[in-house]
Every structure is written in C-alpha cells, then in structure tokens.
Write a sequence for this structure.
C-alpha cells in the first residue's frame, strides 16, 4: 500500500513547467514582489498564490480567506473561529462545513485520483488512491481551489467572474499582469484558471512541505529521539503491534524525509463515531458516506469493485503536524490525539468507550454509517483485528509512546 508516487514530483514540476515565459525582468514593478524573509523561497508565481491565499476580500461577504481555515500556525488547518471545533465557519454567520478541515501540508505529494495496483500486498486488485479532499473528489491541487471559492458554505462567491473582479481590484493585481502578461485579466475564464494555478503553485511550495520536524532532523542525523519516542516509532512500524506504517506510510530503511509522508493516500473505513455537534447530523438519516459519493466515481470504478463497498471510506490523513491539528478524523469526532490513537487500538475491544449505548446496554457500534455499510469497516488489518474481550494490540503505555513519537512530527514554526 505504500504510495511512492513518481507522480508527486511530476505534479510539483508540472506546476513549475507551466510557468509561462514572461519578460518579467523588464516589466516587473519590483515593489509588488517584495518578500519577507519567510517568503524568500517562493517563486513570483507562488508569491502571487500566497497573496491570493491570504486575501480576506475574496469571500462573499468579505472576511474569509483560504488561510482563515488553513491556518499556518495550526498545520494549515483550522475552523475560522467556528463555535463548533469540528467544522469551519463559512463567510456567512450560519454556514458550517460538514467535515473537519484537513491539513493541506504535503498534499502536493498526493498523486492524481485514480485506481492503482496495491503494490504492498503484491495483489492485482486495484485500490483508490490520491486526489484532494477527504473523498478525493478533486483530481489534484490544480483542480481543487475552485471549490472553496465558489462553495456557499465556504467563500460563497457567485461565479468565477466575481472572484476575478476582486483580484483585479486587489493591491497585488500588478503581480498577475507581471507574471501572466498585460492581458492576464482580459478573459475572465482564463484569468480564473491563472489564479487557481497560482494557488496550487503556492500549495506546492516548500513552505507547505518544509520537512523541518524533529523526526526529519533525526533522519538527517542532526537529532536523536528520546527512548520513549524511539519506542513509539518501533511500535509504529511493527506489523504485529501498531502497523501504522501500512497506511500512514514511511520507508523504515530510508533516511530521506520525502519517503516519510505518513500517508499512502489510500482510502479506508475506520468506523469512527458520529459527531452530534455537526449541524448536518441533526437529521438522523443523514450520513457522510465518503468515497462512494465522489462524483463520477462509477465511471472509473474497476469491474471487480462494487461501488457500495467504498461507502464509509475516507482518505488516510498524513500524520505530519498531527499534534497541532485537533480535533481528529474526517468528522472531528475525537478531541485529543491520545484518543485518536487509542481508538485505532480499542475500537472493538472496548466499544463502549467510543460509541453511545443502545437501550439494550450494548454499544451502538459504527453509529455513523447506515446498517448496509457497516461491513465495509476494516476488521482484518492490524491493529483493528481484535474482538471484544481480546487484549488490544497496544496497551496504555504503548499509546503514550506512540503519541510521544507523533509529537516529533511537528514542523518548525508550529513547535
Ligand atoms: C470555510 C473554511 C475553508 C475555506 C475558506 C477554505 N477551505 Fe480548503 N478545506 C476546507 C474543508 C472543510 C476541507 C475538506 C472538505 C472535504 O473533504 O469535503 C478543505 C479541503 C481543502 C484541500 C484538500 C486537502 C486534502 O487533504 O485533501 C485543499 C488543497 C484546500 N482545502 C485548499 C483551499 C484553498 C486553496 C482555499 C482558498 C481558495 C480553501 N481551501 C479555502 C475548509 C476551507
Ligand atoms: C488500515 C489503515 C490504517 C492503519 C493501519 C492506521 N490508520 Fe490511522 N487513520 C486511517 C484512516 C483512514 C484515518 C482517517 C479516518 C477518518 O477520518 O474517517 C486515520 C486517522 C488517524 C488519525 C487522525 C488524524 C487526523 O488528521 O484526523 C491518527 C492520529 C491516526 N490515524 C494514527 C494512527 C496510528 C498511531 C496508527 C497505528 C497505531 C494508525 N493510525 C494506523 C487509517 C489507518
């Protein structure tokens, strides 16, 4: 299952190669490209993307930028001051998302959405991998930014033209013409494509993939893990204990930080508890089914994979910067990192700890999926393979060690 996408670099370079050859040196008014020290690694195109990313005038009404929900200090995720921790507030006071904001760090490494061979298990079976969003519904970073700009629950712009008009009136508008030429705004459709291209160039920059955690420093030989953290790492990669690395991928033999993305970009149904705090969940018949509802999925589905078997599956999140990203899972149902790890270990051995009780006194297991899809939840893969009454693969001390290890994955600037 380890995704080692050669495409990742293709995606990154694709962005750079698509940079038009512009006569920048003669026409650039240098002042608009002024960079802070932090911004120094960015190309002009990426810097333009950063200005757009942080522009609070790009919502309707004004006040919400990409960075309001993807906050640098919190691993490029967040909730825009929402009173509900799990779901972000949109640009209008009564508009909430229905999913937890994921980090966008390291997402340039996600391959384009598709069905790929399951290399790890040497199986011919094709499995879904890659894309953007919890359900992969955007093909890649280039396709993604249109969604939040136009979504009523996020930035709520009525049209692409409306967004272009706002950028045209922004203080950084001269950057657009410097990068793309004097007719950058002439055709609204092309202009919208240019600004989403700038956004994805910024999202693919090294600022969003700094590999500057203590763990990265240990790979480079510049730091050492404490005994507790080292024990956590050992559990993380042990196929009989944590087995975390099977999905939150890394190459145990490799010292190259890019071999440790802590996700293989595949999809799994863990059966996390329902989050009653999400407004959409007030209706007991509303369920977030994840991957199987991805628009157009049926047209690319391999013959041997029934669509219904993908209901309840969500993309494996990277664990980089996970310590600063509470609450956890696609619905933010779990408040603490320790509990997010413990859930993996004790979901089936101690279900009453995680799910509400039925009248019978039993736990209402996997209560965020309708009965027809509960069987999709993974029960064979370590550490999810224990049954009620059995000893979990990880005890409390193991969970503590894993959390200590996960705390080493926080990049500089957030720690
Ligand atoms: C109101 C909050 C909000 C705003 C504003 C917002 N986002 Fe998001 N973003 C989210 C949420 C929630 C998701 C997950 C949605 C889903 O999976 O269905 C998301 C997902 C993403 C993803 C996919 C990450 C992944 O792990 O798959 C990217 C990339 C992204 N946003 C970039 C942007 C950009 C660029 C902008 C500005 C144009 C933006 N976002 C504005 C809340 C927001
Ligand atoms: C079979 C694949 C698989 C294995 C093995 C696995 N995970 Fe996960 N993990 C997932 C998926 C899928 C999610 C997201 C599920 C969701 O939100 O519905 C997740 C979510 C998480 C989260 C929450 C992250 C966030 O951003 O919300 C943490 C923390 C986590 N896993 C840690 C671990 C640890 C530690 C281990 C080993 C003990 C482990 N995982 C083993 C698939 C796996």
């Amino acid at each position: 299952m380890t995704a080692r996408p050669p495409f990742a670099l293709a995606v990154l370079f694709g962005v750079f190669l698509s940079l038009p050859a512009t006569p920048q040196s003669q026409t650039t008014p240098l002042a608009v490209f002024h960079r802070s020290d932090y911004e120094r690694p960015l190309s002009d195109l990426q810097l333009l993307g950063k200005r757009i990313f942080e522009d609070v005038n790009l919502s309707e009404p004004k006040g919400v930028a990409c960075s309001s929900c993807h906050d640098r200090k919190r691993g490029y995720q967040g909730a825009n001051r929402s009173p509900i921790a799990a779901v972000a507030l949109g640009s209008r006071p009564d508009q909430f998302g229905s999913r937890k904001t994921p980090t966008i760090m390291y997402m340039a490494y996600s391959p384009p959405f598709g069905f790929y061979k399951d290399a790890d298990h040497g199986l011919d079976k094709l499995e879904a991998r890659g894309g953007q969003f919890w359900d992969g519904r955007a093909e890649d970073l280039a396709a993604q930014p249109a969604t939040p700009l136009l979504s009523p629950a996020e930035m709520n712009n009525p049209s692409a033209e409306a967004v272009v008009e706002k950028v045209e009136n922004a203080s950084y508008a001269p950057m657009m013409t410097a990068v793309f030429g004097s007719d950058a705004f002439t055709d609204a459709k092309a202009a919208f494509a240019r600004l989403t291209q700038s956004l994805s160039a910024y999202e693919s920059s090294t600022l969003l993939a700094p590999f500057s955690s203590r763990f990265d420093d240990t790979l480079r030989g510049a730091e050492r893990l404490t005994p507790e953290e080292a024990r956590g790492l050992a559990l993380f990669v042990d196929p009989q204990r944590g087995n975390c690395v099977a999905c939150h991928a890394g190459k145990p033999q490799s010292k190259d930080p890019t071999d440790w993305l802590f996700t293989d970009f595949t999809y799994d149904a863990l059966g996390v508890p329902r989050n009653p705090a999400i407004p959409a969940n007030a209706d007991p018949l509303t369920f977030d089914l994840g991957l199987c509802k991805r628009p157009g999925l049926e047209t690319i589905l391999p013959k041997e994979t029934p669509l219904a078997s993908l209901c309840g599956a969500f993309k494996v999140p990277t664990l980089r910067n996970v310590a600063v990203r509470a609450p956890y899972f696609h619905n933010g149902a779990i408040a603490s990192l320790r509990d997010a790890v413990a859930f993996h270990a004790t979901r089936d051995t101690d279900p009453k700890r995680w799910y509400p009780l039925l009248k019978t006194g039993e736990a209402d297991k996997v209560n965020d999926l309708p009965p027809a899809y509960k069987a999709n939840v993974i029960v064979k893969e370590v550490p999810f393979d224990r049954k009620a009454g059995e000893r979990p693969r990880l005890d409390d001390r193991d969970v503590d060690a894993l959390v200590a290890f996960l705390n080493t994955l926080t990049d500089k600037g957030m720690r």
